[in-house]
Amino acid sequence: MNRVASLPEGTPGRVTALIQAAESAERGTDRSTARDRYQAALAGLVGSPESCLASSLTRWIGRSFLDDGDLDAASDCFEAALAIALAHHDDPAVSHAINCQALVHYSRGELDQAVQLFSWAERRASAAGESKLVAMIHQNLGIIASIRGDLEVALDHSRRALETYEDLGLTEYLAALLNNIGRLQTDLQVYDEADRALAAAHSNALLTGQITYQVLVHVNRVRLELARGRLQEARSHCDQAFELVRATGDERWLGDIYKHYGTLSLREGKHALAVRHLQRAGEIARGHEDQLLAAEAATELAEAFWGLGKNRETLQQLIRAHRTFDDLRAKRELADVDSRISRLEDKFLAIVQALGESIESADSYTQGHCERVAEHACRLAVADGFDTDLLIWFRMGALLHDLGKVSIPKAILNKKGPLTEAEWRLIKEHPEAGAELLEDTEFPWDVRPMVRHHHERWDGTGYPHGLVAHEIPRSAQVLSVAD
């Protein structure tokens, strides 16, 4: 970062000094002071012939808000910077402002809008001969490609940016980019190359005094060491990152640090501690509107709840992560969440199958019947607009609808002739008995109303409670039709 060197000729000396002081504050992660200096410099431009510099100053103020996670304030600044640049027909400044607007969309997880704006900014920057900005845009497009799982595309964008920065001698931009490359190489499992990239990033961050990127190196080294299975080294880097944050007050990567502490606790089998760390990471992510971090924390939090036997909480976190990754179209992460959900569903299906076998062993009539009813019920539920995220659990309720028959003597269940009045009363108790048998089974979605009420009828002639019309739970209505 050397904004003073690029200032137009004739910039007032006081303005130059304020910008220099702002840059110094930014290097020390004191973004509040930096903002004050930039705002003072902006005020100092009133009446100056170099008033087009106002767009850059407004943009720099916005970047400080962006780094602090205040996306609304950042967006307002970038919109103002764009308006000023357009008013002065300053094409390079227009390109920079559009690039920054794209960063806000990226930070909110609105990746399609971000890509659209980055591409627009790149075309304008190329036409204006803004090589540095073109490199910055490639760097940003690389980050988005990484999120979406296009790792080779991401690496290509990053290497193009690196080549340009090196050609232009922009050493202050290398730490951030080398961090990105190291992270990508970790994901591509070329660990030695990742090691070299992160070592270079750390050297550059030390040389340029960029504490934020020193923290980021340690954060990315945690990922690398976790991938290698080196838990002790990973924890050491996590501790170093946390100490730097505590010493400087720069909390930009604090959410990632807590997420890594949670992952480490998981690997060590400390599930309750992992929950605390990961919940904190999720809080920070939501406060900064960081959708990617929120989804990653939710995925790990599901694993922690799973280890504690809290199945309902596990599913809630997995569904939250699934929806966010789906919004981001993060291919690798989405596939991982899908596999986790699949493993969880397998556990519940195992419970259902065991219970189902007990039903069929008691009643020859139910052999194959429960599976057929579940198939029809699910089709009806989809047509009825049932939440597809919960369809697996609806299916399980349908499979278990006759569970209560295990409490009825086999002689009555399999009787060839008509039932006596006493035997029929026993049969009519099976819905309530089935619901009671499921009382202690912690399904993420409550299947018991389906089991309890699948023999109720719209006109009130059903059992066990004689419910009428809409008194019958909707899920039980659908199941009743299928049955």
Describe this structure in words.
With 483 residues, the protein is mainly alpha-helical. It is 73% helix and 0% strand. The chain has 24 helices and no strands. The chain has helices at residues 13-27, 31-43, 53-67, 71-87, 91-107, 111-127, 131-147, 151-168, 174-187, 191-208, 211-228, 231-248, 254-267, 271-287, 291-307, 311-328, 331-362, 369-383, 391-399, 410-413, 421-427, 430-437, 448-453, 474-482. Helix 1 (13-27) packs antiparallel against helix 2 (31-43), helix 5 runs antiparallel to helix 6 and helix 18 packs antiparallel against helix 19 (391-399). The longest helix has 32 residues, at 331-362. The N and C termini lie far apart (70 Å).
Could you outline the blueprint of secondary structure elements for this entry?
Elements lengths: L12 H15 L3 H13 L9 H15 L3 H17 L3 H17 L3 H17 L3 H17 L3 H18 L5 H14 L3 H18 L2 H18 L2 H18 L5 H14 L3 H17 L3 H17 L3 H18 L2 H32 L6 H15 L7 H9 L10 H4 L7 H7 L2 H8 L10 H6 L20 H9 L1
Order of helices and strands: HHHHHHHHHHHHHHHHHHHHHHHH
| Count of DSSP strands | 0
Mean pLDDT: 89
Helix content: over 70%
- Report, as a whole number of angstroms, the end-to-end distance: 70 Å
Q: Decide which structural class fits the backbone.
A: mainly alpha
Q: What does the overall shape look like?
A: elongated
Oligomer: single chain
Poorly predicted parts: none
